[in-house]
Design goal:
The chain has 25 helices and no strands. The chain has helices at residues 5-28, 37-42, 50-78, 80-99, 107-136, 142-167, 172-181, 183-192, 201-206, 210-221, 228-243, 261-265, 268-272, 275-282, 287-305, 307-315, 317-339, 344-365, 368-376, 379-411, 414-433, 442-455, 459-465, 471-480, 486-506. It is mainly α. Among the domains are: 7-210 and 257-278 and 286-293 and 378-413, Up-down Bundle (Growth Hormone, Chain: A), CATH 1.20.1250; 435-498, no CATH class. Mean pLDDT is 80; it is low at 246-257 and 489-507. The relative contact order is 0.13. α1 (5-28) crosses α10 (210-221). It is a multi-pass membrane protein.
């Protein structure tokens, strides 16, 4: 695009956040459609049938799972940029399949196929975009950028809720066709813009394309290719690649670190996908009032999703995870406690619980599971580990979205008790096993794990004991922990000096 420095970084962030805006929109778009009369008449299998409503909504998650598996298998070979282009193209194809259905011609089957295809594209994007963003960002703003990326999921959901609400006053076809078709607007940005964006410099280095990687790093930092800072960053990344056992970019599946399961089983999508349904069935509101309250709840969701942008690099990942866990647990306790009496006045308290749940989720558990896997894994496993974590995200997302209408129909307030207990179980896992990564470069995070392993201490303690390192200190620690030998380092510096001398002669 002819951009460099801050402008290029902003363009990378714009495309990444648009991809997650599309993700959020797609998450919320079925909420106001699935229980609408025009939709249920057009797709009679869903007419007041909680199992079918759950299935038509949740089958999208199976598509997302397949897309994540695709990246798991082929992401390292394709690269980050081309993966995003493929993902957006597949999503747009799925939207076309959905909106082109005709009543009485296997409409429900075609709609389900379209949901799956759209999901495949979204799975590809959500497995790729956080990794791409992390690998193109500086350590000082990486957390902020990926939190913005994760936070705009809430804005996408907000747009979907209010578009659903507005479309509900139009003709029957408009009620559901237009909100689904609107996804194409975001999809075109993610499809077209990456043609002119750079590839991830870290991915290029794993493919032994050093010259291209040098140009990309120089462009992202606004430096020249022969600048000392550019050469230092290349050397540090190469040390990290060597330490992770680089062999032409191949990664063994046994080396993967999993994450994101807890985000889903905590009940977020039980609230996001079925908020109007929860209000209709649990709190006995009309469909229109439930849609309106759902839209208000998404405003709360979007507002609180922005709070992480301002505190992520101050509070850190661990504190936000722990605060969100406690808040979500207590919110679910409030919901089921207020539904116990079975009275209308008490049920209003349950509505408050749903609002506070989405506020805590938006501020913490919404963006963090997209940021953490992209940071915590070494270069060798980063793309596949992020894909695996996203696979589990969608697998458990499917399970929660599938069973929530059935749980509400059969055990009522017990649904929220189950989610309260699950959230309570998260706290000790995070406290004992999640090291802090705020303000750390990706290579510095590798040092944390090397320190924990070599000194036989927990990685949480290693992250607390390791001071913040500059590039020279990272290089020294890399040699200390055996990432690279002194001879290797000397060879790299000698090669760089020769390059500079050659450039001077040519000049």
């Amino acid at each position: 695009m002819g951009l460099s420095g801050r402008k290029l970084q902003l363009m990378v962030s714009f495309v990444a956040t648009t991809g997650f805006l599309l993700f959020g929109y797609d998450q919320g778009v079925m909420s106001g459609i699935i229980s609408a009369e025009p939709f249920m008449k057009y797709f009679p299998e869903t007419d007041n049938n909680p199992t079918w409503q759950g299935f038509v909504t949740a089958i999208y998650e199976i598509g997302c799972l397949l897309g994540s598996i695709f990246i798991l298998c082929f992401g390292d070979a394709i690269g980050r940029r081309r993966s995003m282009i493929i993902g957006a193209a597949v999503m747009i194809l799925g939207v076309i399949i959905q909106v082109a259905v005709f009543k009485g011609h296997g409409a429900t089957a075609q709609f389900i196929i379209g949901r799956v295809v759209t999901g495949v594209g979204n799975g590809i994007n959500t497995s790729t975009i956080p990794t791409y963003q992390a690998e193109c960002s500086k350590s000082t703003n990486r957390g902020l950028l990926i939190c913005i990326e994760g936070g705009v999921i809430a804005f996408g959901t907000l747009i979907a809720y209010w578009l659903d609400f507005g479309a509900s006053y139009g003709p029957d076809d408009l009620t559901w066709r237009f909100p689904i078709a609107f996804q194409v607007v975001f999809g075109l940005v993610v499809l077209i813009a990456p043609f002119w964006l750079p590839e991830s410099p870290r991915w290029l280095l794993t493919k032994d394309r050093a010259n291209e990687a040098t140009k990309v790093i120089a462009a992202l930092r606004g430096l020249s290719t022969d600048d000392e800072e550019t050469a230092t960053e290349i050397n540090i990344i190469n040390d990290s690649i060597r330490a992770s056992g680089h062999k032409g970019g191949n990664t063994p599946f046994s080396a993967l670190l999993l994450s994101q399961i807890m985000q889903q089983i905590g009940g977020c999508n039980a609230v996001i996908y079925f908020f109007p349904l929860l209000f209709e069935n649990s709190i006995n509101q009309t469909h229109q009032m439930s849609l309106l309250l759902g839209g208000v709840n998404m405003i709360v969701y979007a507002i609180f999703a922005t709070t992480s942008w301002f505190i992520i690099e101050r509070a850190g990942r661990r504190k936000l995870f722990l605060i969100g866990t406690v808040g979500q647990c207590l919110s679910m306790v409030l919901v089921f406690a207020c539904l116990l009496p079975g009275t209308g006045s008490a049920a209003k308290g349950a509505a408050v619980g749903l609002f506070t749940y989405i506020a805590f989720f938006g501020a913490t558990w919404l963006p963090l599971p997209w940021l953490y896997p992209a940071e915590i894994n070494p270069i060798k496993t980063r793309a596949k580990a992020n894909a695996v974590s996203t696979c589990f995200n969608w697998l458990f997302n499917f399970a929660v979205v599938m069973i929530t209408p059935v749980m509400i129909d059969n055990i009522g307030w017990g649904t929220y008790l189950v989610f309260a207990v699950i959230n309570a179980c998260f706290f000790p896992i995070i406290y004992f096993f999640y090291p802090e990564t705020k303000k750390r470069s990706l290579e510095e995070i590798d040092i944390i794990f090397a320190k924990g392993f070599c000194e036989n201490i927990s990685y949480v303690k290693a992250s607390q004991n390791l001071p913040y390192l500059d590039d020279a200190a990272i290089d020294a620690k890399a040699r200390e922990y055996g990432f690279t030998s002194d001879d290797d380092a000397a060879g790299q510096h000698e090669a760089h000096d020769e390059e500079k001398d050659g450039a001077a002669v040519m000049a």
